Amino acid sequence: MSMFRDFAVSLTYPPTLTLTLLVLAALLWLCRRRRLGAGVAMAALFWSALWSFPFASDTLRGLLENRYPVVRDAALLPSADAIVVLGGGSHYAWLDRPDVRPEDLRYSRLAAGARAWQAGRAPIVILSGGGEGDTTEARRMADAIVRLGVPRSALVLEERSHNTRDNARYSLPLAGTAHPRLLLVTSTLHMPRAALLFRQAGAQVMPMPVPEGRAPKRWWRYWLPSPRALWRSGRAFKEIVALTAAHLRL
Length: 250
Fold this sequence. Notes:
alpha/beta, 5-stranded parallel β-sheet
């Protein structure tokens, strides 16, 4: 069952689906269904080619990213019982900068959580991310967010989660109330699914999405295929499938 699930998830990435369809096309060709096989092969190649264009990738991602607006001014956010920051990568290049400030990091979840805490929106920041051994993602996040001015006394670490459903299941009890009001911090792409799962777990969710990535600096780059656009398309398809499964409570 786990292998089937992993294979199904891999098909959300256009190159994997294309390769699978090309194998199917080859089998059809060997079975003398050559016209059908050629059609499947052309459709497979077109699929990856389409989603390698930044304009197509951004259009697809916009279906999720535009659901919740990004709030730039933390003072405009509502008050909450806790700020929950979901893990999303442990490489913080800005740690090497001597004068880093939360206001300078537009694309950082930790910076967004720090701004909300500094604006007095909640008394604690829950950092959610598991891992193996003593180096969990939550601990790496804690070391980084301290650099942004949040004291360790305000941090609560959730270190057992391995997916978004776990984030919700294990973070809620740390907020100190049965149905906590949570300022949820994650990327714009991930927010629809994360907000849904936290609500299903019993939280009152106030989304605080963070923009993910940068747009091409020149307009004509939107019309040039790139591996990055193909990867971004794959992430969007994966989120759409996972969001559908969350709605169905699969």
